[in-house]
Amino acid sequence: MGGAANILSSPIEYLKGVGPQRGDLLKKELNIFTFKDLLEHFPYRHLDKTRITLIREINPQMDFVQVSGILLNAEIVGNNRMKRLAATLKDASGELDLVWFQGVNWIQKALIPGQPYLVFGKISFFQGQPQLSHPEIEPITPEKTEHRNFLEPVYPSTEKLKARGLGGRQLAKLTHALFTMLGEKDIPENLPPSLISELKLAPRFQAFVQIHFPSSPAHYEQAVKRLKFEELFIAQLRMGLIKMQRHRFSRGVVFEQVGELFNTFYEQRLPFELTNAQKRVIREIRKDTGSGKQMNRLLQGDVGSGKTIVALLCMLLAADNGFQSCLMAPTEILARQHFQSISALLGALPVNIRLLTGSVKSAERKKILTELKEGSVTFLIGTHAIIEDKVEFKNLGLAVADEQHRFGVAQRAKLWSKAAIPPHVLVMTATPIPRTLAMTAYGDLDLSIIDELPPNRKPILTVHRYDRARHEVMGFIRSEIGKGRQAYIIFPLIDESEKLDYENLMKGYENVKAWFPEPRYYISMVHGKQTNEIRDTNMQRFRDNDTQIMVATTVIEVGVDVPNASVMAIESAEKFGLSQLHQLRGRVGRGAEKSFCILLTGQGLGREARERLNIMTATNDGFKIAEKDLELRGPGEIEGTRQSGALNLKLADIVQDRQLLETAGRLALRILENDPELKLPENEGLKNYLKLTAGKTPWSKIS
Ligand code: ADP
Ligand code: MG
User: Fold this and answer.
1) Of 5, 266, 595, 692, which is most buried by a Cβ count within 10 Å?
2) What is the CATH number of the domain that holds 78?
3) Which pLDDT does position 12 carry in this prediction?
4) Entry pTM
């Protein structure tokens, strides 16, 4: 397919009507370097040329309009910075002002008063009068009117390009010129024939023609579907290949046996029966770590599903095989809590466990670092301080990262460099990412899911109350405390460095104190500005039930586990995102008692805030909430997906096209399972295409 590749890879300036100057602009403004780039510069809308608005009928509800009329005048007015080109267009019903602020000389030269023009642009109102600023304008010629029956593409463009006659509609001329040079062989089919017929997809060449110049809206839909599918399918296929390649070629340490530590712990110290989901995940991890390949696994489990114990069992497995392991948490509070609870769970088992965080004093730190290097520390628990370069292990076999959504790809890579053979990596998250998104955003990780909560958990009852019902809410918290329970009261501190937020928190604290006076009640407070000592003391007092109320910011969000706390009130709940609310709520409902979450807000909520609150009161299911979150905010906002860069999509949208994404993922997997090296004739087009567009696919190792 040499010839095919050649024409599309031609530099854009060689296209008829482009040339060096416009070519440079296209490169700078739109990143269009080659014919192929132009081919993939898709129109954002199509214009029905037969739909022309009468000037008199223009009203403020309209967005874009197309009008046709005689150009009465076009004059440059004002001077210097205020210089603009003002023109008037007249049709049978009235007159309309057109105005340009940039490229005025150039545009004026091209306009001929007295001639008929077709004008398209976004309507705005200036001093009560409708006008079009920087519209697209072109003379109406007899030849043009003949073609009025098709949908004309409008492309994304820029002011600079518009000034050079390459506006949204003029780009169509270039695309048109390009297509006159292209034949089917230049855009060869890349999907297997069986797939095309199974999904009734439009052929590739046709799809490209129709997405630019559709012969009907239905053809356009078909073309878009085909090209979106292709995009999603190829992206996931590529990811699958990378993953397979990693599985086949990356050597990992082997945890051969289940030994003394694991067994003793399991039989004598495990305080509960594992859920089936926990058992299944441990089996998956054992299989990975025994295979001789390096594990890269993402463990997703809703808040309270019991991920910590899974991590601990895996760490014991590593220890049984003579390897060190580490557990990383995103916050100091959580690191300390893990250290405490794991130490308590281990009891007298002979495991040397250490805590390393930013606040460990230097003498102690030195000692830990030495012991780590010598190998006498078995478990290292800490914050991300653990992966600093100074920290050296003797033989790190397993690294667990709790709350992965704050743990990036680069950090994982850092871990791999900590041992001759890269350690197994288990990342855990309680921010459930919808499955489809996980497949794409974390495509290089294998996925385990704990989809079951420990038994006897009572669902958390969530309600929404307005501030004016505060009296009633505080009364309820009092009655729960009266029964021996504890409560969280959460304040929004979006950015902990903001002085204003801090003052709000302090005011809030004083209010809480007024509702819950000493000596009946004692209050802990935890926020990001405290020293570690003070924060620890406050946490510990709450954990010991010396304080009944915890006033906190979102530092409490991740992982904190105090089962006796059964009420949470969230102040200004409308200011929190969905996944954050769900995380926060996960701090209650951890014991055997019925738990409550009260979302407090002011009046006058926006539509989205209202929707978030409705979802929170309707469900406890983290996966459902994550799906909804994705819908409301879009994928770019979901943590962890931004840095992934795994999917660089031009057409498809992983929220709107979720269904197609899933289908494409399923089919990509099917092909990889049947024909992992794409050797079948049926998959030849696919293989050629992947080679042609190879960036990251390590083909040398596959074929
Ligand atoms: P998360 O998945 O949110 O990190 P944790 O690991 O903190 O959850 O576990 C939440 C609570 O559930 C802890 O108190 C833990 O001891 C308890 N737990 C975990 N697994 C089980 C189980 N199988 N049966 C009963 N309780 C469990
Ligand atoms: Mg946890």
Assistant:
1) 595
2) 2.40.50.140
3) 96
4) 0.65
